[in-house]
From TrEMBL:
Lineage top rank: taxon: Bacteria
Pfam families membership: ABC_membrane, ABC_tran
Organism from which the protein derives: Sporolactobacillus shoreicorticis
This protein's name: ABC transporter ATP-binding protein
Organism classification: Bacteria, Bacillati, Bacillota, Bacilli, Bacillales
Ranges of residues in domain ABC transmembrane type-1: 16-298
Entry's localization field: Cell membrane
């Protein structure tokens, strides 16, 4: 919490005024019972009506002033807390954006969502409460005690018994409740995870008739969180009557002993009334303090979760030596030199001693069975992961020596699973290059074989793509993703199994068009279908993380058993001939 307090720095003035207004409001509240005692003891007892009017008006004025101060203090506290929440959320999002895929896996997407929303809201609320109560509680407590002792020191002895009783019972309840607060944030993560899986996987759930199973799974997580919430509320529910009991018994004692003191002539009625109000103020301020003691550890748990994310140092960052100028004209393309890579915790490397070059102006295809390491290999080029050993080079320079931003600008990447964003078709393609003209967008779409179906859409390039690209087919989505990468006018194009949802004709036409752009760029295509890689300048055959063959189709047919097996499993004998 304290570490996060630095995000309050931009709001120092509103914080100061909020605290000041609370301070003044508390003083006004402490003053009111004294005024009332005067009205009773001087005005009512002596029957002095003008005095009652005068003091009554004065009381009204003080109450009004306290009301205005409360509104102002609350407004400023809310403003500060909301601003703090917005800044931390922004900071968190910007920080998470720098994460490599490893760090995403480390925390988990659902937990990142809960931490950015729910956890920050918890902290925000507590900061708001602290702003309001931090001054009020101690001031009302100390001020109340001074005023109560001033009214009647002997009667104050009742508070000596009541206050410790109140504090001890609060501490006991807080101790019981705290472990549940810790649990509830974790359970919230789990509920989010299940909800996310279920919403994104709704098609699969329906096609396998697993609705009941998923409803049960959600229900279990939901019940789990409900049980914990109920337990917390049970403790809170027990707390309130207990507090009220202690407070009311104290009142009875005050009235009882106060009555005796009035009888004996050592106290006036007005003083007793004021004393009762001070006693209430003292006990309420203790309650407020207790609330803070309960809420702060709860927010502390959230703050730890937020700090955990903010403390993660992305392992893929620009190194100090960054800045080597990369000569895009050199035409060296991409080179892997004895590259080995392992996923954290994996038993064996996903890529083992990989060496090859993918020259600019050429098409390099990567083929291999599922899990052979094809996507992993592509991921090392834009530095989604870093190689454990060896060197990945772009135009003769190690990727670690190029700034991540510059490196990624040189690359047009089409992921295995196409992702589109909510917006128009044109906006989605322009995502690859903000400066692309309408003509360039259309040209990219034409090469990607997307122009035709876009023209057929009701609004053409202005047609809206629904959330997650749900209103376009799998093949159309892939073509839009390819158009987006082409719009980038990059030096290197990485297409990860991007033709899988295309029919053979479209696949062939797209490859022919792509051939044109590879006159200057390096094109690396991961594919499952042999027909897609057939005409590549170089084919790399991956098997279990190792290169088992590289060359043209004809060369590999001569030299590489794995390649021959792949071809044989896909093509008819006559096609081979
Ligand atoms: N994020 C990850 N964490 C741990 N292991 C992973 C991760 N991604 C992939 N792997 C493992 O690395 C190996 C290579 O995976 P990769 O996705 O590169 O294969 P691929 O050849 O692209 O397969 P496919 O054609 O099915 O997409 C597999 O054994 C896979 O289980």
């Amino acid at each position: 919490m304290i570490r996060l307090a630095r995000y309050m720095r931009p709001y120092l003035w509103p914080t100061f005024f909020s605290v000041l207004f609370v301070f003044l409001q508390s003083l006004a509240n402490l003053y009111l019972p004294t005024l009332m005692a005067d009205i009773v003891d001087t005005g009512i007892v002596k029957g002095d009506l003008p005095y009652i009017y005068k003091m009554g008006t004065y009381m009204l004025f003080v109450t009004l002033a306290a009301g205005v101060l409360t509104v102002l203090a609350n407004y400023l506290a809310s403003k500060v807390a909301a601003g703090f929440g917005r800044d931390v959320r922004n900071k968190m999002f910007a920080h998470v954006e720098t994460f490599s895929l490893n760090e995403f896996d480390q925390v988990g997407t659902s937990s990142l969502i809960t931490r950015t929303t729910n956890d920050i809201t918890q902290i925000e609320q507590v900061y708001m409460m602290i702003l309001k109560m931090m001054t009020m509680a101690p001031l009302m407590c100390v001020g109340g005690i001074i005023m109560a002792v001033y009214q009647d020191a002997k009667l104050s002895l009742v508070l000596v018994v009541a206050l410790p009783l109140l504090i001890v019972s609060i501490l006991v309840l807080a101790q019981k409740g705290l472990p549940y607060f810790k649990k509830i944030q974790k359970k919230m993560d789990r509920l989010n995870l299940i909800l996310r899986e279920e919403l994104t996987g709704i098609r699969v759930i329906r096609s396998f008739n697993r609705e009941k199973h998923e409803i049960d799974r959600f229900d279990d997580a939901n019940k789990d969180i409900t049980h914990t919430s109920i337990r917390i509320n049970q403790i809170m529910a027990a707390a309130m009557p207990l507090m009220m009991l202690i407070m009311n018994l104290s009142m009875v004692a005050i009235v009882w002993f106060g009555g005796l003191r009035i009888n004996s002539g050592s106290m006036q009625v007005g003083d007793l009334m004021a004393f009762i109000q001070y006693a209430m103020q003292i006990m309420f301020s203790v309650l407020m303090g207790a609330m803070m003691f309960i809420m702060i550890p709860r927010a502390q748990i959230s703050a730890t979760r937020v700090n955990e994310v903010l403390d993660i140092q992305p392992d893929i960052q620009d190194t100090k030596s960054v800045g080597s100028s990369v000569n895009a004209e050199s035409g060296l393309g991409v080179a892997f030199k004895s590259v080995t890579f392992s996923y954290p915790g994996a038993e064996k490397p996903a890529l083992n001693d990989i060496s090859f070059t993918a020259r600019s102006g050429e098409t390099t295809a990567i083929i291999g069975g599922t899990g052979a390491g094809k996507s992993t290999l592509l991921n090392l080029i834009p530095r989604y992961f870093d190689a454990l050993s060896g060197s990945v080079q772009v135009n003769g320079v190690d990727v670690k020596a190029i700034s991540v931003d510059k490196l990624r600008r040189m690359i047009g990447y089409v992921p295995q699973k196409s992702v589109l964003f909510t917006g128009t078709v044109a906006e989605n393609i322009r995502y690859g290059n903000e400066r692309a003209t309408d003509e360039e967008i259309k040209e990219a779409a034409r090469i990607a074989q997307a122009n035709e179906f876009i023209q057929e859409m009701s609004e053409g390039y202005d047609s809206i793509i629904a959330q997650g690209g749900k209103n376009v087919s799998g093949g159309q989505k892939q073509r839009l993703a390819i158009a987006r990468a082409l719009a980038r006018q990059a030096d290197i194009y990485l297409l990860d199994d991007s033709f899988s949802a295309l029919d053979y004709r479209t696949d062939a036409r797209l490859r022919a068009e792509l051939g044109r752009i590879t006159q200057t760029a390096a094109l690396i295509i991961v594919a499952q279908r042999v027909s897609t890689v057939f005409h590549a300048d170089k084919i790399i055959v991956l098997d279990d993380g190792k290169i088992v063959g590289q060359g043209t189709h004809a060369e590999l047919m001569e030299t590489c058993t794995v390649y021959r097996e792949i071809v044989a499993s896909q093509l008819e004998k006559e096609e081979l001939a």
